[in-house]
Design brief:
Keywords: Plastid. GO terms for molecular function: oxidoreductase activity, acting on CH or CH2 groups, with an iron-sulfur protein as acceptor. InterPro entries: Co_F420_Hydgase/DH_bsu_N (IPR007516), FRHB/FDHB/HCAR-like (IPR045220), FrhB_FdhB_C (IPR007525). It holds the Pfam family FrhB_FdhB_C. The chain has a domain of 255 residues. By secondary structure, it is α+β, with helices and mostly antiparallel strands. The protein is 35% helix and 16% strand. The chain starts with a helix and ends in a 7-residue tail after the last helix. The radius of gyration is 21 Å and the shape is globular. An eight-stranded mixed β-sheet has the order 3-2-4-5-9-10-1-11. It is built from 16 helices and 13 strands. The structure holds flavin-adenine dinucleotide and iron/sulfur cluster (SF4) (2 copies).
Length: 404
């Protein structure tokens, strides 16, 4: 005869666990990026799955791509395991998308062709343009309603609870690096037959309150901003609800104010290029107006083929030398220097013309963020730093002179 305790013991850990109550301190405490995992029963695996409790890039890459990145090849050291890289834009861009809308178009094709039953993506709340509302989308309209970045931490994985009892067996997951890492760690315990991950690079994310401080300290009209991006021309491009654009040079940021707005999770994150995704779509390795695509494995290739005939494609390029600019940035950041706006515009103008472009711009951005984040982790988490900072990031950071 089977006893009740035997039955309970037979259950999978997530069937014996409840989601954490909303508002409760998460296991990663102040480092939590609110990825949503702990809002589901899959919190049962949090010790192994949370990227802020347990870094496992090598094991993840090995399992997902069949090998981990080769640290002796500069392109893999920076951009992770990949099969091919290209830049592209949709021949017919989607109005209102973050860039040309390749992510949304590809997702729609994945549903229309039957590759997947649903797409995990993020819509916005009716009251607030920047408050994320994750969903499992099943129609083109639902996917289109999720277009454009919600530039705040987003609990994407909370919707995994809805898989149980649904008829979703094949899922396309859209997400940033921390969400991908947590998802990969529990993927095999989900009631799914097939999974594809379309990732985006991500850096410097903020809580909703942090976003408010950023907009107020950077834009002339913070309340009308509907969309913004840190672009390859070294300007932040704000788009306002009245159709106007506003450009603010990176070098003119109010460093003392902006320094503290980024979420601690993002100040300790080294997964800028989304190492565990099958296909990654960003912009920073492409020339202005194009998107940057990194195909990591055969599933990523399958995803790209859905949309390839609709793309205008160009090869990736690289020019300039980032090292001096990165070193100057480290020193300026450390001393919280703010340039007057006229000087920031002149510096921006010069850097745009003679500064790093294409893949070299990506390396500039990765170097700048990894050095800042390594410093932050060393200063705030002492002995945790050695284990937390992945090997590839240590190698990248070692090229620079860091303040003590
Ligand atoms: C927070 C964030 C930071 C980014 N930072 C960089 C960067 O530094 N460098 C770079 O090259 N690229 C970055 N990207 C990716 C880039 O900005 C574009 O999102 C990408 O190129 C796709 O553009 P698109 O026009 O095809 O997207 P769209 O077709 O507009 O689709 C955007 C997709 O993003 C998803 N999404 C929106 N907000 C979030 C969120 N908070 N978390 C997870 N998913 C979300 C939506 O579900 C939607 O499917 C970032 C993206 C995000 C969300
Ligand atoms: S980052 Fe995700 S997995 Fe880690 S504590 Fe926060 S919600 Fe949980
Ligand atoms: S910067 Fe890293 S931790 Fe922060 S939201 Fe992006 S992927 Fe997650």
């Amino acid at each position: 005869m089977t006893t009740l305790s035997n039955n309970v013991a037979d259950l999978a850990p997530h069937d014996r666990t409840r989601p954490l109550k909303k508002g409760k301190v998460k296991p990663a405490r102040d480092l939590c990026s609110e990825c949503g995992l702990c809002d589901t029963r899959w919190v049962a695996y949090v010790k192994q799955a949370c990227p802020f409790l347990h870094q496992q890039f090598e094991a993840m890459e090995l399992e997902v791509h069949g090998r981990s990145r080769n640290l002796d090849l500069e392109e893999e050291l920076y951009f992770g395991v990949y099969q091919r890289m290209l830049t592209a834009r949709l021949k017919q861009p989607i109005i209102g998308a973050q860039w040309t809308g390749i992510v949304s178009r590809l997702s729609i094709k994945a549903i229309e062709t039957g590759l997947v039953d649903a797409v995990l993506c993020v819509q916005q709340s009716e009251e607030d343009r920047f408050t994320p509302v994750p969903i499992l989308a099943r129609t083109a309209d639902e996917i289109l309603a999720a277009r454009v970045n919600k530039a705040t931490l987003s609990p994407n994985l909370e919707v995994l609870e809805q898989l149980s009892g649904s008829n979703i067996k094949r899922l396309l997951v859209i997400g940033v690096g921390c969400q991908t890492q947590a998802f990969r760690a529990i993927q095999n315990t989900l009631p799914l037959d097939a999974v594809y991950i379309l990732g985006m690079p991500c850096v410097d994310n903020v809580s909703r309150a942090g976003l408010e401080t950023f907009l107020k300290s950077t834009s002339k009209s913070p309340d009308t901003v509907i969309h913004y991006e840190f672009m390859q021309d070294f300007y932040i491009h704000f788009h306002h609800s009245n159709g106007k654009s506003e450009l603010v040079p990176f070098f003119g940021l109010d460093t003392p104010k902006v320094k503290d707005i980024f979420a601690p999770s993002c100040l300790s994150c080294f997964d800028y290029v989304n190492a565990g995704a099958d296909l990654v779509i960003g912009y920073m390795g492409a020339k202005f107006g194009y998107q940057w695509l990194t195909v990591r494995n055969s599933r990523g290739e399958q995803l790209l083929q859905l949309v390839e005939p609709e793309l205008e494609i160009q090869p990736v390029t690289s020019s300039g030398n980032r090292h001096a600019a990165v070193q100057q940035g480290i020193d300026a950041y450390n001393q919280s220097i703010r340039l007057p706006s006229w000087m920031a515009s002149i510096v921006g103008w010069f850097v745009q013309r003679i500064g790093p472009q294409g893949l070299e711009y990506s390396r500039f951005s990765i170097d700048s963020h990894f050095t800042r984040n390594a410093l932050w982790v060393w200063r705030h988490h002492g002995e945790k730093a050695e284990k937390h900072i992945p090997l590839f990031a240590k190698k990248i950071v070692s090229q620079y002179r860091l303040p003590s």
